[in-house]
Write a structure and sequence with these properties.
13-stranded parallel beta sheet; six-stranded parallel beta sheet
Length: 359
């Protein structure tokens, strides 16, 4: 007995042309692109729609171009990806976000079209696992985020990006010197685990926040900014820090070992925070700024804290601190607030003329 298989009629392909256009009109561009797999008529309708959109945008402006890829190239996809990126590079892209993982290209870094780095339209640039070339010209760039990027030039300077407001370097390769000079709009700088970075120099009038993490080989940090509010340094050794600011609100040093010197030229430092530091950093040979108002120590090991020279000091907080040579001693002048928490055998010496003391 022969079984007869009934074939359902293709109702989608039988839809009138005006109905298909009405469906496409109600969809977003991303949703309309997905309808291409339904039938040839939908594909033709989407193609006509994209051509009309292209004609309605004569300047070829793309607000955001995002391309993330974590699968390996093959002979078919590699030329298609190159064609796609080249086509995007010819448009006026305002936000460019590209992530091509190194496993995709066999452990190497992907080389993007040079037009991306000489664009006058890009305002936000986010790159992961790509190559950043020498000739960088992005006059309207405002936000720069580089993650796992191979730098062709060992010294990065943003002289051709005078409008930049925020920069982030995360696990970048071949970068030894970071110089951000004469950038009036720069407000935020973040550097994370750049293993070969030796020095950082920043001159920005309106800079507010600097966050530096796990810079093991960095030996010198210079920051000059009148509006600077916070500097955070985490996980550094044998470091020399020079800061010039009008009023620094917060200076945090976390897991920093054997700091060579901390030179701060500021009218006041509202708060100094030391976490897991070993060494007498507040010694006059290391720390020269006397205008600290609030000092907080956590999980630190020290011998003697000679704080009588800090004339603006209002509060000292010590938590879980101990000695690494002998019984630790805190030498204090008369201050309003002293707070100790879980400290082992800490002695306090307070100068004469005591008006108020809290422990």
């Amino acid at each position: 007995m022969v079984k007869i298989k009934r074939v359902r009629p293709d109702l989608i392909s039988r839809l009138p042309e005006d109905v298909i256009h009405e469906i496409m009109r109600r969809l977003s561009v991303k949703q309309a692109a997905k309808t291409c797999v339904l039938s040839k008529r939908f594909f033709a309708s989407y193609r006509a729609l994209s051509q009309r959109l292209e004609k309605s945008n004569p300047e070829n402006i793309i607000e955001r171009f995002k391309f993330h890829m974590d699968i390996r190239f093959n002979k078919q996809t590699k030329p298609l990806i190159a064609k796609l990126l080249n086509k995007a590079a010819m448009r006026k892209v305002r936000e460019l976000d590209i992530n091509i993982h190194r496993s995709v290209v066999g452990g190497f870094f992907y080389n993007l079209p040079s037009a991306f780095f000489t664009s006058e339209s890009i305002q936000i640039l986010k790159l992961q696992y790509c190559i950043l070339p020498y000739d960088l010209y992005l006059p309207h760039l405002q936000i720069l985020v580089l993650v796992g990027v191979m730098m062709q030039d060992k010294t990065f300077t943003a002289t051709t990006a005078s409008m930049i407001k925020s920069v982030k370097f995360d696990h970048c390769y071949n970068l030894t010197h970071l110089e951000l000079l004469r950038l009036p709009h720069l407000k935020n700088v973040e550097v994370i685990s750049v293993e070969n970075l030796e020095s950082i120099k920043i001159q920005a009038l309106n800079l507010q926040h600097v966050n530096l993490y796990s810079l093991e080989k960095t030996s010198k940090i210079e920051i000059e900014a009148s509006s600077l509010e916070q500097v955070v340094v985490v996980g550094s050794e044998h470091l020399k820090i020079e800061i010039r600011a009008l009023n620094l609100k917060n200076l945090r040093l976390v897991r920093c070992c054997d700091i060579r010197s901390v030179k701060v030229e500021a009218s006041t430092i509202e708060r100094l925070v030391l976490v897991r530091y070993i060494g007498d950093i507040l010694d006059h040979r290391v720390f020269n700024c006397l205008s600290v108002e609030d000092i907080s120590l956590s999980y630190c090991a020290f011998n003697t804290l000679k704080l009588e020279r800090f004339s603006h000091l209002k509060r000292i907080s010590v938590r879980d601190c101990s000695s690494y040579l002998r019984k630790p001693c805190i030498q204090l002048p008369n201050r309003q607030h002293i707070e100790l928490d879980s400290c082992s055998d800490v002695e306090i010496e307070i100068s004469e003329n005591i008006n108020n003391r809290r422990r």
